[in-house]
Amino acid sequence: MPAKARRLRTKGLLTLATAAACVAAVASVPAQAGDNPTYTNPNAPVDLRVKDLLHRMTLAEKIGQMDQISVVRMQGDCQWSGGDFTQACLKSVLVDNAAGSVLSGGGAGPAVNTPENWAKMVNAVQKYAVTNSRLHIPVLYGVDAVHGHNNVLGATVFPQEIGIGSSWDPALAQATGASTARAVAATGIDWNFAPVADIARDQRWGRYYETYGEDPLLAGTLAASSVKGIQGADGEKKVVATVKHFAGYGEPGNGHDRVPGDVSIRYLQDTLLPSYKAAIDAGAQTVMVNSGAVNGIPATGSHYLLTTVLRKQFGFQGVVVSDWQDVRALQTSYHVAADYPEAIAKAVNAGLDMAMEPYDAQGWSDGLKTAVDRGLVTQKRIDESVSRILRLKFQLGLFEHPYVDASKADGAVLGADTTLARQAADESQVLLRNDGNVLPVPASAKKIVVAGSYADDINDQVGGWTVGWQGVPDGVQEPGTTVLQGIKAAAPSGTQVVQAKTADDAVAQAKDADLTVVVVGEKAAAEGAADSPRPELSADQQALVKSLKATGKPVVTVVIAGRPLVLGDADGTQGLLMSWLPGSEGGKAVADVLFGSYNPSGRLNASWPKDIGNEPLYYQQLPGTNGGPESSYDAAYPFGAGLSYTTYDFASIKAGSASARTKDTIHLSVGVTNSGSRAGDLVVPVYVSQPSSDVLSPSRKLVAFARVHLDAGQSRTVGLDVPPSRLAVTPGDIDGTGPQTVARGDYVFTAGTRSTTVTVR
Asked: Is the pLDDT higher at 759 or at 3?
């Protein structure tokens, strides 16, 4: 969700005292509903409850259910002023316009940002809707909790998705999703706008770090695990996940956020859609639409994406919501609609159920009513969307339990699952250089210099979407452990840790140091503000690292960033650790790797460019007759790269059968050994290639992976399955638009340096 709405502030709303205590749902039933209406019966089947309630609703009430309004439109002057809830504003949004959902965009929290105050704020909204709406319908309350309950000051902040992606650990993605859901639920919120299932292939894009990486299988597997964690979290209150941003959001034409992109249908089907489908197949109950345009059509108005693909091909039956003000954008930005009612009609008829139109509840109500009056939208189509929205509310139990006990929120959120956050940060660390075994830091080291402006900066370490939309606002200090603090705490007794305050000081201190750790990176930001036309380390940081290298003493570079950065003169230090945006426990994780208490296991989920101008860069680049330098896939550090403090061998890869039919799942077994002297976790990827194919295929494509623990000297056989969908491609000529099929022929499966061939007949 973008725009000026989320530039706001951490200051938000004071709450109604009447919502402080939990009360029973649907306190009374309107006389016009009759005695004991079915929709108020918690024991009745959900479909009957939906049908009964829908039958009792007016057209205006149905239209309102399809709108999502920002919470800040109900307080102060009903604009963006903050302050107490305003009765007139609450009435306008929740009663007069019957809004079905409310959200807190980045920064739209309570005046005093604590979990308890968040719970009171949400309870207040819910209380007003349940008490004052004619049929006592609760609202859905949404928030972007994309790496923990990141809007809440003091909540445990996990690594951003790009870091979780480098763990290659589905169990970790599920665990962090569940932890996030428990925190979100404790504050009364039931709708989490996560995970991001987009893939990232252009390092310039500002939302690169919000994805799980560049590979469709890896991203889809982790997004699916996150969905299972969010929706399967234990606790009395349920939270639903959102697969976003459907579809093709990570393909902006010039690398800038929300710029229209043009892709072939083959690329869309074979590369961009699979990650969303995996997350939807995991049971996601809501989907958020791509704000951008694909092939000349805004996704919000695309019947092909929202109905043909999502509903008919994928079988999705849940709620589809737009991103921030995107329905209005069909008129104001894309100019595919002459006026707002026509824009609404395009979106609703395309398959949208709910519009995140946070500015103007009255405008939405009037606009959709006008569209109905003009014959642009049928009431039957509205009933479809409202039925889905109501079904979700019943499934969440909101009619029975719309409130939470706010007094329990602080205990449930503050300091929760910090051990898991440290594990997540540990697993996300990717060691890319370790020349001369400079790491782990030897016990004999007497002096360690820590340099760089990001060494002691927790706010940039956690990244965007933390407390505020663009990251932690000025004047607010996010709790957590910085890299400097982590190193100081982990350094053995007798080792001096010195923080260099300036570049000159760093060079001077390094001359008699055993090791210099220089922490470099980029400033926290989000969406368009995070776009980087030149995704490289800044000149001053390159100069600092170059000067430190010139001292002749060992240097380890730690990168705190949301994307691979061209290092320039900073490349070539003895050690290089990609820490990504590791969250509130990130400083401890960096120290864990530096001092060897954790054996690094992260592997790159994104290709690292050698130089500026190689964007987009991804390992599945197709072959061609090109011959210029770096015109083929030529990364500084390729997809899947990562070092360990032990050694591993891939002993074999075998297929269950040398041949298979096009509809068969191929069963593989990979023999691996930890040939080193310490235990560690090994990522076992299997790639496929085709010696020849009618449609261009990359030199390798990830088709299966696992993460396994191996003790020193231990050997294991890892079983992996490759379903036919992972081999399927869109056949035909340049205009190929048919269904995906598995081509007949030879497929070479590779693990490490070992390979085996399966012939598909």
From this structure: 759
Instruction: Decide if 648 contacts 675 (C-beta within 8 A).
Output: yes
Q: Classify residue 320 as exposed, middle or buried by CB count within 10 Å of its CB (0-12, 13-18, 19+).
A: buried
CA distance 192 to 35: 35
Distance CA 236, CA 760 (A): 49
Distances (CA, A) of 591 to 362, 420, 585, 689: 53, 16, 10, 39
Q: Is the pLDDT of residue 4 over 90?
A: no
13, 46, 322, 383 from 387: Cα distances, Å: 31, 10, 17, 6
Q: What is the pLDDT of residues 636-679, one digit of tens each?
A: 999 999 999 999 999 999 999 999 999 999 999 999 999 999 99
Q: Is the pLDDT of residue 82 over 80?
A: no
Q: Are 586 and 461 in contact (CB under 8 A)?
A: yes
Tell the residue number behind the tokens 């370490």, with chain if given.
461
Q: How many CB atoms lie within 10 A of CB 662?
A: 13
pLDDT of residue 19: 39
Backbone angles phi, psi at 267, to 5 degrees: -65, -40
Other residues' Cβ atoms within 10 Å of the Cβ of residue 447 = 16
Environment class of residue 234 by beta-carbon count within 10 Å: exposed (0-12), middle (13-18) or buried (19+)? exposed
pLDDT at 83: 67
pLDDT value at residue 77: 82
CA distance between the termini of the chain: 47
- Is residue 7 predicted with pLDDT exceeding 70? no
Residue 106 has what DSSP assignment?
T
Q: Which residues contact 402 (CB under 8 A, 6 or more apart)?
A: 25, 126, 127, 130, 138
| Contact predicate 747/729, CB 8 Å | no
For the question of residue 478 being annotated catalytic, the response is: no
What DSSP state is assigned to residue 211? S
Q: How far is CA 273 from CA 181, 245, 278, in A?
A: 26, 11, 9
* Helices vs strands, H then E, count in the chain: 21, 26
Q: Which of 214, 215, 323, 664 is catalytic?
A: 323
Question: For 311-343, what is each residue's pLDDT tens digit?
Answer: 999 999 999 999 999 999 999 999 999 999 999
Q: With residue 457 as reference, give the H or E element that holds it.
A: none
With cut-offs at 50, 70 and 90, classify the pLDDT of residue 107: confident
Distance (Å, rounded) from C-alpha 28 to C-alpha 48?
20
Structure tokens at 485: 């603090």
Whether the Cβ atoms of residue 193 and residue 513 lie closer than 8 Å to each other: no
Tell me the per-residue pLDDT of 515-547, one tens digit each, with 9 for 90 and over: 999 999 999 999 999 999 999 999 999 999 999
Query: Packing angle between helix 273-281 and helix 216-231, nearest 10 degrees?
Result: 30
| Pair 684, 653: CB distance under 8 Å | no
Positions of E strands within 555-626: 555-560, 575-578
* Cis omega (within 30 of 0) for bond into 37: no
Question: Residue 684: is its pLDDT beyond 70?
Answer: yes
Distance CA 264, CA 736 (A): 9
555-565 pLDDT tens trace: 999 999 999 99
Tell me how far apart the alpha carbons of residues 561 and 582 are, in angstroms, rounded to a whole number: 9
Can you read off the two tokens belonging to residue 752?
């490490």
* 527 assigned to active site: yes
Name the DSSP class of 599. Answer: -
Pairwise CA distance, residues 181 & 148, whole Å: 8
3-state secondary structure (DSSP) of residue 5: helix
Cβ neighbours of residue 640 under 8 Å, at least 6 residues apart? 603, 604, 619, 683, 685
Q: Is 323 exposed, middle or buried (0-12, 13-18, 19+ CB in 10 A)?
A: buried
Find out whether 229 and 181 touch, Cβ atoms under 8 Å: yes
pLDDT at 319 (0 to 100): 98
Do 549 and 522 contact (CB within 8 A), yes or no?
no
Catalytic residue among 527, 571, 615, 664: 527
Q: Which amino acid is at 138?
A: P
